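#lab-general

N.A. 3:47 PM
ok so I finally got the sequence cleaned up, no stray characters, all 261 residues accounted for. can someone with queue access submit it? mine expired

B.Y. 3:52 PM
send it over

N.A. 3:53 PM
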Amino acid sequence: METLLSRREDGVLYLTLNRPDVRNAMSLGMVLELRQALAEAEAEPQTRIIVLRGAAGHFCAGADLKDMAGARLRLAEDPDAIVKINAAFGELCVAFADTGLAIVAVLEGTVMGGGIGLACVADVAIAGTSAVFRLPETSLGVVPAQIGPFLVERLGYAEARRLAVTGGRLDARAALDLRLVHAVHPAGALDNAVAAVIAEILQCAPGAVAATKALFAKARFHTPASLVQHAAEVFSAAALGAEGLEGTSAFLHKRKASWAP
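B.Y. 4:20 PM
back already:
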């Protein structure tokens, strides 16, 4: 990995965006390495959580504009050069949004553009008080294209539209008020807050977490009535599966389930 730092510990994969000289701006190389890291984590049965963070006190300054400049130079030979780069980031967001693993984003310092997109696809977004959020695309004459759907999903149509047309700027507390993030902690308490969230997630069965995320994703586009049968089948499969049997037994015998540390 050239743009990421990674370490595994007790079922958790820690991925650190590591381009500190550009506040971890997201190059195409970083996009591809994040996709690779996610695929490897999904193939590793012991990995249950991915924690995303940025190096040197910043999360991510959005897309690396050098990539777009390079794509412009290739337009004569490849008219879709910019389309391909933009779509690659969108595919990354979709992959992280759709994974059955739990995703935790730790947001500090600069969180711009695509960095906000990664925050929106995380299951849990925790901000430090240093975090400053900005959606600068329209002020640059471009569109927050790939993160737009995830921003609407997280904030709702009205707030997403307001941020987009104003080049939205938010401090950590304002981001919490909008529910862009789920918690805000001072720098000295951030690591403990992340550890507490990890501990809570590890108490939950990994298969049940994945199935729940998939059901909730489906629920966004269907009425409750249309999901009754599907939800019942999902529940039955879980209850009759190994995790359901183990969880019930652990509860009755007042012990930790096998998946809990």
